[in-house]
């Protein structure tokens, strides 16, 4: 009988420990679900922010790329000149926040130029006139 009592006490102790572990596991699952929800929320907000920051960008293809060491100012001036000559839109340099080539220089291909305009309106006016760019170099 004494042996049965010890075994029963041991089982009760193990059962209490299992219940405690079960509660900890449930708490961990709840916390993991909450962290996952927060992560997805932050990821969505980061995507929205990134998309918003890109809304003033345009990529120009086919603009000659003779200089392998072209700097930001050169890219900016080249884009402004192309817009003025081909679209007949006077664009002030302050309308261009940034302009740079994408990728490494290669003699075999022309690198595109990504331009961030100061406002969505400026970008949109250039985009609407963009059909005039087709077939030009």
Describe the model:
This protein is mainly α and 137 residues long. The protein has two domains: 1-54; 56-133, L1 transposable element, RRM domain (Alpha-Beta Plaits), CATH 3.30.70.1820. Helices cover 57% and strands 11% of the residues. A three-stranded antiparallel beta sheet has the order 1-3-2. The chain is rod-shaped. The termini are far apart.
Descriptors:
Alpha-Beta Plaits; 3 strands; mainly alpha; 137 residues
In short:
This protein has 137 residues and is mainly alpha-helical. It has helices spanning 2-54, 72-87, 120-128; strands at 57-60, 96-101, 113-117.
Number of DSSP E strands: 3
Number of domains: 2
Helix content: 55-70%
The spatial strand order of the largest sheet comes to 1-3-2
The whole-angstrom Rg is: 31 Å
- Percent strand equals 5-15%
How many distinct helices?
3
- Alpha-carbon distance between the two ends: 99 Å
The class by helix and strand makeup works out as mainly alpha
* Rounded mean pLDDT score: 89
Considering the protein shown, what is the CATH homologous superfamily of the largest domain?
Answer: L1 transposable element, RRM domain
Order of helices and strands: HEHEEH
Q: How would you describe the shape?
A: rod-shaped
Level-2 CATH architecture of the largest domain: 2-Layer Sandwich
CATH topology of the largest domain: Alpha-Beta Plaits
Poorly predicted spans:
none
Q: How is the biggest beta sheet arranged?
A: 3 strands, antiparallel
The top-level CATH class of the largest domain is Alpha Beta
């Amino acid at each position: 009988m004494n042996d049965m009592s010890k075994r029963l006490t041991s089982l009760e102790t193990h059962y209490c420990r299992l219940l405690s572990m079960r509660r900890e596991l449930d708490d961990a699952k709840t916390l993991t679900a909450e962290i996952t929800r927060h992560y997805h929320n932050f990821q969505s907000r980061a995507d929205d922010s990134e998309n918003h920051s890109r809304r003033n960008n345009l990529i120009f293809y086919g603009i000659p790329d003779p200089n392998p060491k072209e700097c930001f100012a050169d890219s900016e001036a080249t884009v402004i000149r192309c817009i003025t000559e081909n679209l007949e839109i006077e664009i002030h340099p302050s309308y261009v926040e940034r302009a740079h080539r994408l990728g490494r220089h290669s003699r075999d291909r022309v690198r595109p130029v990504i331009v961030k305009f100061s406002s969505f309106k400026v970008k949109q006016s250039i985009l609407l006139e963009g059909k005039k760019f087709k077939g030009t170099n």
